[in-house]
Design brief:
With 445 residues, the protein is mainly alpha-helical. Helix content is 61%, strand content 0%. The protein has a domain at 92-167.
Length: 445
């Protein structure tokens, strides 16, 4: 591992980030103290943004760069600090465990709802926390199989259902470490400073969403990042195999196939390598082959069907005259057209993936905080200020938990979300205008 200096500003930033993460512990249940949790997480993001500024600035101002060793040691310390927190900002891990337990009992999560009285026998003390009880599963088959294996392993070590729920965070944590490792390799592949991995490794986003809450999005994000590494090494079969595993985990990476097929940057399109998707997806889906039309309809609700912290979808809904289904189809058409356009005109594959994911999240009707982890690794290569700001303000969307926990009312489209999106869009416009003026002045010179 590379050795290097540890400039004092980085030490101060790391110490303050660690201190704020430690302050989360007295809150215990973050979901019951949402305001305090949001405040601490946003403050941590602000310190993180200072660290990002330092690591981007240091190569050009003559100061010594931060050592990769220190970046990784601090990143691991941050993760160890937040790991003991019980998942309380989201109930997803309760659902993961329920689906694992259902499969261990012989049930199919694509055919059974938690509310189904025929499976009441597998309910336990964690059942009230299981989310979306009236819907079947919408996770990919790779996730489902992993949940079954994890449950079978955990029940051998502890009978306590709440302890089992806690340890369902482990896959997200392990795959997050894998993302860091792949990013270091990818930076070396492009002959970029490997300490730029700080932009992901110190981000509070994966800390909270993977190590604190245990969201399984880390699995799909890992395989997307691995696909980028394989593409950089021109091993396209392996690249599409990795991307196919991402699709088997979460369906959304299917939208990245145009970028990988068209190979931004002037390379030849890959017209046949992507076909490896079918045997890989079929292999994992084989145990669940049955009627999944209802699951597909539920999954389409991500694009439109219900609203959670949406931005541009509100304008699409207004244009559609308030017809939610027409808005959904309009949003789906826009997403398809945009990701293909990005694939055709982006300069690099990493840029195409970053902007494709960003477009999907801005247009769709749902954008939870952990969805921003989808593009977090790409910020290492394209640290766009608006996206960093979006990540820093996104914890505000957890305010929806206040009414949910106190009144049992879920309102995912409150005006508070504009405190996230108005600054984001303003910075996007300012950055775009600044780039355009800089380009214009360069041409005139």
């Amino acid at each position: 591992m590379e050795r290097g200096a540890i400039p004092f500003p980085y030490i101060i930033a790391a110490v303050l980030i660690e201190a704020l993460l430690l302050l989360l512990h007295p809150l215990a249940n973050l979901g019951s103290k949402v305001v305090e949790a949001i405040t601490l997480i946003i403050l941590t993001h602000l310190l993180y943004l200072v660290s990002v500024y330092l690591v981007l600035k240091s190569p050009s101002d003559g100061r010594p760069g931060i050592s990769l060793r220190f970046v990784l040691v601090a990143a691991i310390l941050f993760r160890i600090t937040i790991w003991p927190l019980y998942p309380s900002l989201s109930d997803d891990v309760y659902r993961y465990r329920w689906e694992g337990k259902l499969q261990a009992a012989g049930g199919d999560p694509y055919q059974v709802r938690p509310i189904d009285p025929r499976w009441a026998s597998i309910r336990d003390a964690t059942y009230p926390k299981v989310g979306s009880k009236d819907f079947k599963s919408a996770y990919g088959p790779l996730i489902e199989q992993s949940q079954r294996i994890i449950y079978l392993l955990l029940q051998r070590f502890t009978p306590d259902p709440f302890v089992q729920v806690f340890w369902f965070k482990l896959p997200a944590a392990l795959f997050d470490l894998g993302i860091i490792g792949v990013l270091v390799l990818l930076l070396r592949q492009y002959r970029m400073p490997p300490n730029l991995v700080l932009i992901y490794a110190w981000s509070p986003l994966p800390l909270v969403e993977f190590w604190g809450t245990g969201h399984n999005d880390a699995i799909a994000v890992f395989f997307v990042t691995l696909a980028l590494l394989m593409a950089a090494r021109h091993r396209w079969i392996w690249s599409f195999a990795s991307l196919s595993l991402a699709v088997a985990a979460k369906i959304w990476p299917i939208l990245l196939f145009p970028a990988f097929i068209l190979s931004p940057g002037g390379g030849k399109p890959r017209w046949y390598q992507w076909l490896i998707l079918f045997p890989i997806l079929g292999l994992f889906a084989m145990p669940y082959l049955d009627n999944v039309t209802e699951n597909a309809r539920f999954l389409s609700g991500f694009v439109g069907g219900w609203r959670n912290n949406d931005s541009l979808f509100g304008a699409i809904l207004w244009y559609s005259g308030g017809d939610l289904y027409q808005a959904k189809y309009t949003a789906a058409g826009l997403i398809t057209a945009i990701v293909i356009g990005i694939a055709l005109f982006a300069r690099t594959l990493e840029q195409a993936v970053l902007w494709s994911i960003t477009a999907v999240l801005l247009i769709s009707a749902n954008c939870h905080p952990w969805y921003l982890t989808w593009f977090a690794p790409l910020l290492v290569f394209y640290p766009a200020t608006p996206l960093l700001l979006w990540s820093a303000l996104m914890p505000l969307s957890y305010s929806v938990l206040i009414r949910w926990l106190n009144l049992g009312e879920w309102d995912g489209a409150t005006p508070l979300r504009w405190f996230i999106y108005v600054p984001f869009f303003l910075f996007t416009i300012l950055c775009a205008g600044s780039d355009w003026l800089s380009h214009l002045m360069t041409r005139r010179r």
